[in-house]
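#onboarding

Welcome to the new folks! Below is a worked example of what a typical request in this channel looks like: someone posts a single protein sequence, and someone else replies with the predicted structure as tokens. Don't worry about understanding the tokens yet, we'll cover that in week two.

Example request:
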Amino acid sequence: MPTFKLDDQDIPFEPGDTVLRAAHRAGVDVPHYCWHPGLSVAANCRMCLVELLPPPGRGALMLDVLRWDPALGEYVKERKPKLVPGCQQPVAEGMEVRSATSEHVTKARSAVQELLLLNHPVDCPICDQAGECRLQDYWLEHQAKSKRMRDEPVHKPKAVRFGPTIVYDAERCIICTRCVRFSAEVAKDPVLSVRERGNLNEIVVAPGRELDHGYTLMTEYVCPVGALTAVDFRFKARVWFLRSAAAVCQGCATGCNAWLDYDPRSHTVFRHRPRENAAVNRWWMCDEGMLDYRRVHEGRVLEAYVDGQPSELDPAVLEAAKRLRGVAPERMGVVLSAQCSNEDNFAMVELARRWIGTGNLYLAGRAGGAADGVLRHEDRNPNAAGARAVASTLDPRAPAELAADIESGKVTHVLALGAELGDPALAGCLETAEQLIALAAWQGPLVGAAGVVLPIASWAESEGTFVNAAGLAQRSEKAIGIQGDAHPAWRVVAAVGRGLGHAMNWRRLADVRRAMDNEAGAIVADAPALEAR
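Example response:
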């Protein structure tokens, strides 16, 4: 691969690369605001200015400038090389570039940083971007001196409602136009634009419109400063108190890679953010996925129920086993969940196939929705492919067939993983089953009809593997401690199995994965999750 030199370091590059893109891929930091690897080049912040060394035998392009001489008390003439934006400058074999080692670049970046902060409000203590703000980071790294301007700063609109999810503060905005370009290029809805010139610039919404496309929260996420804030996260937490787990979005079958941000002191999840994966979601997530973290705490099943009455977990497990004991295998239906991990579904398959001896497997999950051609998949479940893979040759059937089998009397007893049936119209058939046992993390039709309900952990409370619509197996890490009386579903399934007299002696997740390797190893050959930070 060809290389160029950046501060005397050899940087490999691909055809069409710019200085900044090649450096970014190599893990070398060139400061920037407006550039983003997934967006077109704007080159308007000028923070990424670099110096190109001329080829041997040729002089550099020089500019005449004025420099303030404090000793003389006046401006003096000086010459300096013309700097170029690193985000826009193509690279070539043998090119030499100066960034951090150039005196001229250092001065230019300090001047750019000072210009951006001339009219910027000093409201870091109340800004939601504090702790993640590039203005803060770059001030310390490239300026680190007090503001010289003593004039009244330019005042602009504050707390402007762009739409149902986003609030805009024009005084904090540096007009990097990332949000404008994202809406036009990724969300395919050019609803944002820039008006006025110079220090009167501000971002505006198209007349008669709101920022309401399916990726509005990404416009806030790509903002490098505190100009755009999400209504959902606004004033809720300080980022330095949060920790992150590498998760898989549960919103649909795309399986976007995400960071699940939580407060370890209270075991509260506060937000979902995209985690870069070029093979799945690149740098993006949709609004539905970014807000899906709320389900970690909303609508949960946190204790066991027997005939509608709260119960301790162990007695409820024994009661579930009692109600299933002695049932003819051909009368037993086992429902897998497209919402649960491979490990959880595998536990259900093992109980059904190896111990109970039934082949009546069904697959249920959340109802589908419309695909948008960007990220959102019509299947609103994260693991339908994985559930089918662990079922192997048993080929789980649709919820409509479960309803038909119950109504015909073919299936009289049901052991179900998950709460959703997919089609709400099928919920009535569940009442005709002699017995329904539900292992669920959330409320839903299966929980409402169950005689015994056993609480299980959500994806945020347990580690698991999920297979997306493209067939890629991905591991999702545990973030917070388990809430209420819930346990990982595979553990609850094993407890029910032991209550039925079967030797399901899994004690750790590793035990389940070893069993999966023996039965269907390909489905757990996943790409390793990134380290949580």
